[in-house]
Each structure stands twice: as structure tokens, then as C-alpha cells.
């Protein structure tokens, strides 16, 4: 009897335990399904959720964006300071625009024409050639000063080549003349260089053209023959040591401007897109 009562008591206790555990699990599952919202609703109610959302929005628009803006300002200030200090190289380094060869006629070879008073053609040629070379370099061109029979002339490759000479000491004719190589491989290109030089040199110096006296020596000039056939080239007689002496000796800056403008006229046309 006692044993049977004990068994009945034990089975009632187990049934009660199973019912309690099942109810607890159902309550926990319901809370899990509703998630944090249920927990917040339980703790603060709907109003406090709306308030915290609006606080987050105002933080992102008033604090986060100004922070990244401040960083951009910092970079801009740094670049400005570098530019002022000359660290930014784009504004200080000039790109090489092209290569040019300038021959000082008769230099390191002979005197050229010599006038009765001792004035030598080679002196005028060298003085003008040196001025032209420095003017071209200051304008960003890579420029080489060459002697009459400079070994570098053989196969010389450049964007332009000009040999500078002056004419005889006669006083009965006046003017300047320019020629390309008579057997040029690119006569159209060479003629463009010649035309630019004729126009700009004439405009700068006011000297007349004296094309009628272009000589065979100019047409078959060794420098134009020996440079690379692809290099555009010309030879100029700046004027007569006799009749144009005032220009050749006293206005070399004007002469230089005319030659530089003629060369850059040609180079700008030939490098245009
Ligand atoms: Zn000469």
C-alpha cells in the first residue's frame, strides 16, 4: 500500500514538472519571436524609440560630415603651402618643346668674308648664333650651338636645323636670303621652315629679300646635306656686311627675335594636331 501511494505521488510530480517546463518554453519562444522591440516596448514604450532615432539622424548630419570636410580642408592647405614653397614641380619645371641645331657659320673653321676695315663674317655669325641659342633655351627648346664642320652635324636629328651666315662686304646690294637643300627629301616641310623664316626675319629687321642672289653654295650647303635627311633645315645670309652693317652689328637683338620667331613659327605649325 505504501509503495503504491509513493508511485502515484511520483508520477503526479513528474506530470506537474513536464507542464511547467512546457509553459516556460512557450513563453521564452514568444519573447524571442518579438525580439528587442518587445524588450524595449516593455522597458521604455514607443515614444522613447522615436526619440532615439531622431537623435541618431541629427548626429550623422551635424558631426560626421563636417569631420570629413575638415580633412579635405587640411589637404588643400597642405597643397597650397607646397605650391608656395615651390615643392609642386608642375609649375616650376618647363617641358622641353623640341630640339634645334644652330650653326655659327665658319666658326672654328675660317673667318668667312672679311671687309677692308677688318670686320669678319665669322664674328657676326657667332655672336648672333649665341644669342639665338640662349633665347631658344629660355623658351624651353633643347638647342645645340654647332661649329661649321662640327662632327655632330653628321646625321644630326632635330626638329629644326639652321645655319647662320652673313653676306659679302659689297655696298651696292642690300637684303637677306634663305635656302633649303636643293635635293631635300622633304621639300614641303623644308619650304615651310624657309617661309616662316622669310616672314618673321623680314618683319623683325625690315630688310628686303634678296632671293635673286641665292648661291649654289647655299643650295648644296654641306650642313644641310650631312644632317639627317629627316631633319628640317635651312641656311640664311643675314644681310650684307657692307650695306647692312648697321643692322648686323648694331641690331643683333632684332636679328635674334626674327630668327627665333621664324623657328618657333615653323615648330608650332609642325607640332600642331
Ligand atoms: Zn658664310
Structure write-up:
The chain is of the alpha/beta class and 273 residues long. It is built from 8 helices and 5 strands. The chain has helices at 2-43, 46-85, 121-138, 187-205, 216-219, 222-226, 245-250, 252-271; strands at residues 99-104, 142-146, 160-167, 177-179, 233-240. A 5-stranded mixed sheet has the order 2-1-3-5-4. Helix 3 crosses helix 8. Residues 29-83 and 86-93 have low confidence and may be disordered. The structure holds zinc ion (ZN).
Short characterization:
The chain has 273 residues and is of the alpha/beta class. It contains 8 helices and 5 strands; from the N terminus they run H-H-E-H-E-E-E-H-H-H-E-H-H. It has helices at residues 2-43, 46-85, 121-138, 187-205, 216-219, 222-226, 245-250, 252-271; strands at residues 99-104, 142-146, 160-167, 177-179, 233-240.
Write the layout of secondary structure elements.
Blueprint: H1 2-43, H2 46-85, E1 99-104, H3 121-138, E2 142-146, E3 160-167, E4 177-179, H4 187-205, H5 216-219, H6 222-226, E5 233-240, H7 245-250, H8 252-271
Parallel strand pairs: 1-2, 1-3, 3-5
Antiparallel strand pairs: 4-5
Helix pairs in contact: 3-8, 4-8
Zinc ion binds next to loops.
* Helical amount: 55-70%
Alpha-beta content class: alpha/beta
* Ligands, deduplicated: zinc ion
Q: What percentage of the residues does DSSP assign to strands (E)?
A: 5-15%
CATH topology (fold) name of the largest domain: Aminopeptidase
The CATH top-level class label of the largest domain: Alpha Beta
* Radius of gyration over C-alpha positions, nearest whole angstrom: 46 Å
What strand line-up does the widest sheet have? 2-1-3-5-4
Total strand count, please?
Answer: 5
Provide the CATH superfamily of the largest domain: Zn-dependent exopeptidases
Through-space gap between termini: 118 Å
Number of helices: 8
How many independent structural domains? 2
Order of helices and strands: HHEHEEEHHHEHH
The CATH architecture of the largest domain can be given as 3-Layer(aba) Sandwich
Report on the biggest sheet: 5 strands, mixed
